[in-house]
Amino acid sequence: MNVAALLLLGLGLLEAEGRCFFNRTQEHCVCYNLSQESVSSIIQCLPASVVEFLGGELERYIAFPIGNLDPSAIEMLGSLVIRKIIFGDLLVPEILLARVLRLFSYTQVQELVFERCIFEGRGNWDEMARQDLPILSLHFHNVTSAPLTGREQDFFSLSSWLETLQELAVTGSHVTNLPCGIGRVFRALRSLDMAQNSVGDESLMLAFCKGAFPQLQVLSLQRNNLTSYHSVCESVQLLRELQHLDLSQNKLMADLSSSCQWPASLRIFNLSDTGLDKVLTPLPPSLEVLDMGCNHLHTVDISLRSLKKLFLSQNMLQASPSIRNCPMLETLHLDNNLITELPWDEVKLLGRLWDVAVAGNPYNCSCSGAGGLQALAGMGHLGQGWPQDYMCHSPPHYQGRLVKDVPVSVLQCNSAAVIAPVCVALALLGVAGAICLVRSRPGLARPCRRV
């Protein structure tokens, strides 16, 4: 009880009237506006693995004395099973945060989250110099703080901890730039999420300078102010370990010519909802997953030998793209395009894939439109959307019907499959008749015997 209260006081959470609620099944505890009178309810949070603190202003605790803990308090903090702490809807004075953050060095907390918080003032981070923390994941969402420019020294004071951080997310927080010197501190970072900010082409180039984020594997720049495909390529060229890049919901434009080479390590590329009306080049050569959904593509012609998954839903494609130059392809999604039918030669190729989705297209339920889809469904490749999301748009007498309900005969829809054997049979009969006629003449071999 005393240690729990001490931790809360150190974090400045004893504020307005409130209490805690513990979900034993999820091991999740939520505390609303704790006060010194209701702090006893924190006891029920002690078995939780996730604790969430919501509400309050911490200004009154700026002068709160935070000294060194005695051995018994340190031992008690180390025994807690809390792995994740979430702070939400708080006004956080940085000077207080700088003093109490070192308390986490005595815990087993691995993930720290701030949501809808306002960071006020500027703290003295020198107290954190050479201080290690167990926190490996740090998330900020919809927060407000002073600009990062000129704060390199603050990050350097935190370098003993930040050099071990593996996951960082700063989303929806109006960030416009990430200074080069700050990126060099995050030497072990594997994942960086900068989605829903205001990062532009020029500031991105400065952020990923030489020595910044040397181990980065996953980078999300979703919904920023990026416009140049070539500039983004040049910006991330030095990220030699990059495997997953998300540029979705930016408005990218093709450059007249680009010789930029993407990192050879890049395997997953998200270009969905980027306003594309044609496939941008060059594409990373070793891609395994490419998402170009929610664009304005009319045609797609790509050649990627290692590509396994291609997502092209919600475009303006009138035909299925050729997949002959993607020999490793396993998944192809073409939902909600303008495709009216799947020719039989394409059906044969698509039949080699594991996962095909072409729902929500305006199908002409004639031979190829219905027959090809029914053939794919019979192979078990059309997934969850079949049959309810596959509707006929034409001809008029089939409009509104499910594709699966359209009667399709072999004679109607693949006449070659019927005519060819018939022609062969007629030819064989003609040859057999000629032989019999020849043999039936006097002086020749015995007459042909009917079989």
Mean pLDDT: 86
Rg result:
33 Å
Q: What's the helix count?
A: 12
Task: Give the helix/strand class.
Answer: alpha/beta
Largest sheet: 15 strands, mixed
Q: Name the poorly predicted regions.
A: 1-6, 8-17, 443-451
Question: How many strand segments?
Answer: 19
Overall body shape: elongated
Q: CA-to-CA gap between the ends?
A: 100 Å
Estimate the helix proportion, in percent. Answer: 10-25%
Strand proportion, as a percent range, falls in 15-25%
User: Order of strands across the widest beta sheet?
Assistant: 1-2-3-4-6-8-9-10-11-12-13-14-15-16-17
What would your notes on this structure say?
By secondary structure, the protein is of the alpha/beta class. The chain has twelve helices and 19 strands. Helices cover 23% and strands 16% of the residues. Strand 11, helix 8 and strand 12 form a beta-alpha-beta unit. Mean pLDDT is 86; it is low at 1-6, 8-17 and 443-451.
Question: How would you describe this structure in keywords?
Answer:
19 strands, 451 residues, 16% strand, two-stranded parallel ribbon, disordered C terminus, disordered N terminus, 15-stranded mixed β-sheet, single chain, alpha/beta
